[in-house]
Design a protein that fits this description.
The complex is a heterodimer of chains A (72) and B (463). Chain A has a domain of 25 residues. In chain A, 43% of the residues lie in helices and 0% in strands. Chain A contains two helices and no strands. In chain A, α1 crosses α2. The radius of gyration of chain A is 18 Å and the shape is elongated. Chain B is of the alpha/beta class and 463 residues long. Helices cover 39% and strands 13% of the residues of chain B. Chain B has 15 helices and eleven strands. Chain B has an eleven-stranded mixed β-sheet, sandwiched between helices. In chain B, a hairpin with a 5-residue loop joins β10 and β11. In chain B, α2 packs antiparallel against α3. Chain B is globular, with a radius of gyration of 20 Å. At the A-B interface, α1 and α2 of A face α10, α11 and α12 of B.
Amino acid sequence: MARKRMERVVSTPKTDEAELAVLLGRSGLKLTPDQVREILPGAEIFRAMIARINAPLPREAEPALTFDVEQK
Amino acid sequence: MSEFLTIAEAGRRIAAKQLSPVELTKMHLERIRRLDPQLHAFLLVSEERALADASAAEARQMSGQRRGPLDGIPIAHKDIYNTAGIRTTAHSKLLQDNVPTRDAHTVKKWVDAGTVMLGKLATHEFAFGGPSFDLPWPPARNPWNTDHFTAGSSSGTGAAVAAGLILGGTGSDTGGSIRGPAALCGIAGIKPTYGLSSRAGILPLAFTLDHAGPMAWTAEDCALLLQALAGHDPEDPASVDRPVPDFTAGLGTGVKGLRIGVVRHFFETDHRASDATRAGIDAAMDFFRKEGAEVRDITLSPAADYHAVGYLLMVTEAFALHAPWMRERFMDYGELFRDRVALAATVSGPDIVQAVRRRRVLCREMAEAMENLDIIVSASQPGEAPRIDALTKWTNMEKPSFTMPFNVTGFPAISICTGFGAGGLPVALQLAAKPFAEPLLFQAAHAYETAMPWRDRRPAMAG
């Protein structure tokens, strides 16, 4: 049976240009302020996706973290 | 010769010695010369290779040594499939001089099946979204209206099949890159089950979401193409070692008794599709009911949940692959690819773990939903193709995708044409099934296509 549909409320803090520049720099991308500003609108949308992913999970979500010693 | 043939029909005529593979190939080369300057579907036309392949196919035809239904059939490959001795660029400046020494596993399988390779097809840079106007080659255009988008990233394959430049081709699908162009170009395209077809020798975008599959005018043709594409390959760690079923076995057997679940909230509330798209799905469900299938609505998690998991994993896996070049040659990428993939820098380790855990929950949810069903139905795209100049680099993030759920879960899904919208461009639906149940998808899609008039209409420009 399909599960009951549950739409969650996802709260998303605003993305800050300075914070984005730090994160991009920390990942090794050396970008100009203009290049950072080009990415900012996408970072805003992406932040909402990340918030959605971090909504509480049921305990049975744990198996994704196991390791199978016999896998290829 | 100017008619449009399907692979199935061309194969029958070649087998009966009523059709010359060389003449068929020359006709398609002429169509490419005539139409591709407007479509930009091809990045490279391999005329010499095509004529050599066709001559070899004709020799086998005449000596009774034909290799099967694809022998002598003109095809082309998305330009992320490695082709030995033939440039493979991923539509990117970074690989514009890249000439592989080996064929991708899937390319070799189609060579072994006797296909005639006409060239390499436009994608979007490294198979991620599109359209881009700052790459070494322009984006492909939609043959139903060249002011409009093809969707992506298997854009060249979608355009080339719809315009009759090839009879079939390869695509790849990480978030919908086969099913999107199939939908907007009015053709059929299947993303097989994860692991059914090898990705070895195909330039990756995101390892856990990438799928290789065929695109063609009909579902039957996709079945014939997938038959020669599927199979175990030890060089792809995700490749499954299990017998390949006969994908054409269920064609013509109808849909009586099939249990079909419609994920209506995906395309009515989560991301409301156009009137024509929704009407097309409703008409298809009426058809399936009339033919004896059981049809009911089902409920899954919001499409946005699937989209968020898929998108986060896609950009982080892509960044893991591209980080060395992104750090040193950022501006050599097109703006769309570099700015989207750079978003991976904003993802933390716990975010990735949570995405993987949520993916498991969504996979289980879909498997449970499918326990008492054979097929799940949704939209493929929200409507007709938009104008190619109406899209921004963030368009594909703003609303949830209908195709991503089946990349996240790895379930097989096919897009087929359900008619035309108010703008005269195609609309489509998507059928999905349990893992390795591709024969059922072809069975249902073929039943629908052969009962409807949509396969009789080609883009006006194709003549």
